[in-house]
Design brief:
Strand content: 25-35%
Number of helices: 8
Oligomer: single chain
Structural class: alpha/beta
Distance between the termini: 33 Å
Number of strands: 26
Largest sheet: 5 strands, parallel
Helix content: 10-25%
Shape: globular
């Protein structure tokens, strides 16, 4: 290969570029990113950065003096992939021809219909989003978070620590039931009530009120929740529209094998946009977690450089963590399909415990709250 183009310049794209060089690729390397920023760390955006405890320089992912020998095309969006001449077309009219392509375009925050142009309404996905939200939170007042997932919960926790009056609205009966299961999702989301943050579950959002600036969130049951600021945390959609008609199979992202290979030879996908096959579950799954974006590109790059001639390995089970209200939450594995979950250490009411999910007696996932050492020992069983 003479040229490899990495489309996406966040953690997954940077990890792919590093893997290319580490695995011996010495040809032309082009990194394309739609944001103007060099690669930065996203998890602190909802926590330390939003709280003002760290600055933008602390988010940098590149090591001091790191030189990948790459061409960086930043602040420009990929608009299409032409498989005939193997080129990535860009919004500014340029085209990058490449022998190998790594798709790492990530995901974008979903928005609330009808919220466009209304001041005080935010999503949190990018550095620019975090800058704007941080300025809003400095105003104080009432914050309403729509969506009780991990990002929404972290924003609520940060805002609570900053002294805001916080309400979290979740359409599902139990927040976090998807990743953690209903029982443990309820335990983790009880952290809100522990700290005086209102949690309204089982009710959808009908819309927002306000002329130029939001002043309330309107619920489907007729209630109205006053708001000075609103954060919409209702998930993310994979950024794959630019691949339509390219020959790359799409289904909730880029459909991939267990090593990132796509339906188009010489093209692999990594990160939040990649819907990898998981032999553990027998299905495809997008893993929107930091560790996946860090670890999986090495396997995808090996496949790319071997022209698809490698045997797919088994991806490590998903691992993620979250920090809320001073509590460290860690999870590894797959909660879906577990037929039991038992607390092995500590107590749920003390918000310090370790729980093991099992299927037919075999551990398939582990959840820890403020049990980092014990959790690490358990996690090794899943990543060995």
């Amino acid at each position: 290969m003479r040229t490899v183009a990495v489309v996406g310049a966040s953690l997954a794209g940077l990890s792919a570029a590093r893997a290319l060089r580490k695995q011996g690729y010495d040809g032309r390397l082009v990194l394309i990113g739609d944001e103007p920023h060099r690669p930065y760390d996203r998890p602190p955006l909802s926590k330390e950065f939003l709280a003002g405890h760290i600055g933008e320089t602390d988010l940098a992912l590149e090591a001091d003096g790191e030189d990948l020998g790459a061409e960086w095309l930043l602040g420009v969006r990929a608009t299409s992939l032409d498989r005939a001449d193997r080129s990535v077309r860009l919004a500014d009219g340029r085209a990058v021809r490449a022998d190998g392509i790594v798709i790492a375009t990530g995901a974008a925050a979903r928005t609330l219909p009808g919220s466009e142009g209304l001041a005080g309404v935010h999503t949190l996905r990018t550095l620019d989003d975090a800058r704007a939200l941080r300025d809003e939170l400095a105003r104080g007042g009432k914050l309403v978070v729509i969506g009780g997932g991990f990002v929404g919960a972290e924003v609520a926790s940060t805002a609570y620590a900053l002294g805001l009056d916080v309400t979290v609205i979740e359409a599902a009966p139990t927040p976090l039931a998807g990743p953690l299961g209903e029982a443990m999702g309820g335990v983790v989301s009880a952290l809100h009530a522990d700290h005086g943050v209102r949690l309204l579950c089982g009710v959808g959002v009908k819309g927002l009120s306000g002329e130029r600036r939001v002043d309330a969130v309107l619920l489907e049951d007729g209630r109205s929740v006053p708001a000075d600021t609103v954060v919409v945390g209702v998930g993310a959609r994979p950024c794959v529209e630019w691949l339509e008609g390219s020959g790359v199979a799409l289904d909730n992202g880029v459909t991939c094998g267990a090593d990132g290979r796509t339906s188009l030879a010489g093209v692999v996908a990594v990160g939040d946009c990649a819907n990898w096959y998981d032999p553990h579950t027998g299905g495809h799954r997008r893993v929107e977690h930091w560790t996946g974006a860090l670890e999986r590109p090495a396997a995808a790059v090996a496949t790319l450089l071997a022209h698809g001639g490698t045997e797919p390995g088994v991806p490590r089970p998903p691992y993620f963590w979250s920090d809320q209200y001073g509590v460290k939450i860690q999870f590894v594995g797959h909660a879906a399909g577990a037929d039991s979950v038992t607390v092995e250490e500590g107590a749920t009411d003390e918000r310090s415990f370790l729980a093991v999910y099992r299927r037919a007696g075999t551990p398939v996932a582990v959840l820890g709250m403020n049990q980092p050492r014990l959790f690490t020992r358990w996690r090794k069983q899943f990543t060995a």
